[in-house]
Write a structure and sequence with these properties.
405 residues; elongated
C-alpha cells in the first residue's frame, strides 16, 4: 500500500532505513572481512556553529538513547541541556558524546544519531537565544505550522527545553505534560463578520464556549486599527480580558514598537490596566528586545525556532581496540584517543584531556574541575531514565543567564 505521506516512521528509523547508503556498503565490506565486531571508540563533536553563535544547547540525547537501546554499546555523554562551545579553553574540540562497542552494532545509525542531535540542539539553542532576548517576558512556540507535521511535537519539545514558556501544538504539549498555549485565528472573526455582520461577537463567543481556565486573549487586528480593536475587546470583556494579540500582516506592517506603545498607553489611560500585549509574526532574538522595551509582554515565535539553523555535529572514530588495548587513531585533523571533558561551573570554562589523566584545575580560578562525560548507557541498557523536560529547561535557563548572546 502506498504511504499516505512522505515521511520515515519510527520503525524506519530504528531499522536504519534513514541511513546514508555508504554505511550499508561499509558494513557489508566489514562483515565480508570479518571486521564488523572490531570495537571502536567514536566521539561526537560540534563541527560548526551557526554564524554569530558563541555557544549551543546540547540536546537530543533522549532520542539518541532510544535509537541505540539494545544495541550492545556503551554511551558516554554530556548531560542533556548543557551549554557547550565548539572548543575548550585551549582550542581543542569538545566531545559531547562518545560511543564504544563493536562498530557493526552502530555504524548504520550514525546518520540518524547526528540528525537527532543537530535538529534538537538547533531548536533548543534558538529557543534559548530568543528567551534570553525576551528577559522575563513570556515566549511561546508557535512553530507547528512552520515545519513538517511529523516532527512538530519534536520541535515543541526541544523549544520548551530551550526556554520557551509554552507551546501551541496539541501533541507537543501532551508530550511535555503541559497545557497547550494559543489565542485565536483571524478565521474566527472573519466567519462572524461574514455571517453575523460583527466580528467582535467572536470574542464573546470564545469567552462563552472555551473552558474558563484558558486565558482570554483577543486577536486585535483583523478589520480595524490595533488600538480600536484592543479598546473594543477591553470594553466587551472587561476584567476577563487577559491580553490582546497583535499580528498585523507583513504587507501592512508599520512600526510595531510604536503600535505596542500606543495600544498599551491607551488601554491604561482608559482604565484597562494589566491587559497584556502579545506580539507574533516574524520575531527572533534580534527583533524582540525593541518590542519588549516598548511594553510587549508575550512573544509568539514560529519560524525562527521551527526553522532554526541546525548545529552541525560530526562522528569520528578516535580509538580502536587491538589485542585488548585501546589504540589511539583518527583521521587527519581530528584528535585521537579516548577523552574526558572537564568544566569549572563557577567560570563555565572547559578543558579536554585524554582519559585517565589527572583532573585539571580551572585555568581562570584554580578550582578543581568537574568531569562532564558520564556513562549513560552500558551494553545497550540505559543507566538512568532521561531527565524530564521541566528539569532540562531549568538547567538551560540557569546557564543562559550567565552567557552573552
Amino acid at each position: 500500500m502506498e504511504e499516505p505521506f512522505l515521511w520515515a516512521t519510527p520503525e524506519d528509523v530504528r531499522g536504519a532505513k534513514t541511513t546514508d547508503v555508504y554505511f550499508e556498503r561499509t558494513l557489508k565490506v566489514l562483515k565480508g572481512e570479518g571486521l564488523d565486531r572490531v570495537e571502536v571508540h567514536a566521539e561526537i563533536t560540534i563541527s560548526a556553529l551557526p554564524s554569530g553563535y558563541g555557544w549551543a544547547v546540547y540536546a537530543g540525547l533522549r532520542e539518541v538513547l532510544k535509537l541505540l537501546e539494545g544495541k550492545g554499546v556503551d554511551v558516554y555523554s554530556l548531560p542533556e541541556g548543557t551549554l557547550v562551545r565548539q572548543n575548550d579553553a585551549r582550542g581543542y574540540r569538545i566531545p559531547v558524546m562518545a560511543i564504544e562497542g563493536p562498530y557493526g552494532e552502530f555504524a548504520l545509525y550514525e546518520t540518524a544519531l547526528l540528525g537527532f542531535l543537530a535538529a534538537a540542539s538547533g531548536v533548543a539553542t534558538k529557543a534559548a537565544r530568543v528567551k534570553k532576548a525576551a528577559g522575563n517576558k513570556l515566549v511561546l512556540s508557535f512553530g507547528a505550522r512552520r515545519t513538517h507535521p511529523a516532527i512538530a511535537p519534536f520541535v515543541d519539545y526541544y523549544a520548551y527545553v530551550g526556554g520557551c514558556d509554552g507551546v501551541s501544538c496539541v501533541k507537543g504539549a501532551e508530550l511535555l505534560g503541559i497545557t497547550p498555549s494559543g489565542t485565536m485565528p483571524h478565521s474566527l472573526m472573519i466567519v462572524f463578520r461574514a455571517v453575523k455582520g460583527d466580528h467582535t461577537l467572536a470574542w464573546l463567543a470564545f469567552d462563552k464556549h472555551v473552558e474558563p481556565g484558558i486565558p482570554r486573549v483577543v486577536l486585535a487586528d483583523t478589520f480595524w486599527d490595533e488600538v480600536e480593536e484592543s479598546m473594543a475587546a477591553a470594553k466587551l470583556l472587561g476584567s476577563k480580558l487577559w491580553g490582546v494579540r497583535l499580528d498585523t500582516p507583513g504587507s501592512r506592517r508599520g512600526d510595531m514598537a510604536a503600535i505596542v506603545r500606543e495600544v498599551k498607553w491607551k488601554l491604561e489611560a482608559a482604565g484597562f490596566r494589566g491587559v497584556r500585549i502579545v506580539v507574533s509574526g516574524g520575531l527572533d532574538e534580534y527583533t524582540i528586545p525593541k518590542l519588549a522595551e516598548a511594553g510587549a509582554d508575550v512573544f509568539g515565535v514560529g519560524s525562527a525556532i521551527a526553522n532554526a539553523p541546525f548545529i552541525d555535529y560530526a562522528m569520528d572514530i578516535v580509538a580502536v581496540k587491538v589485542d585488548g588495548e585501546w589504540k589511539p587513531i583518527a583521521k587527519r585533523g581530528k584528535l585521537s584517543g579516548r577523552k574526558q571533558v572537564y568544566r569549572c561551573w563557577d567560570c563555565l570554562t572547559d578543558l579536554v584531556t585524554l582519559a585517565g589523566e589527572p583532573r585539571p584545575s580551572c585555568p581562570k580560578c584554580g578550582k578543581p574541575m568537574q568531569p562532564l562525560l558520564e556513562k549513560v548507557m552500558e551494553k545497550g541498557v540505559l543507566k538512568a531514565e532521561p531527565e524530564p523536560p521541566q528539569k532540562l529547561r531549568e538547567k538551560v535557563l540557569s546557564q543562559v543567564a550567565r552567557v552573552e548572546l
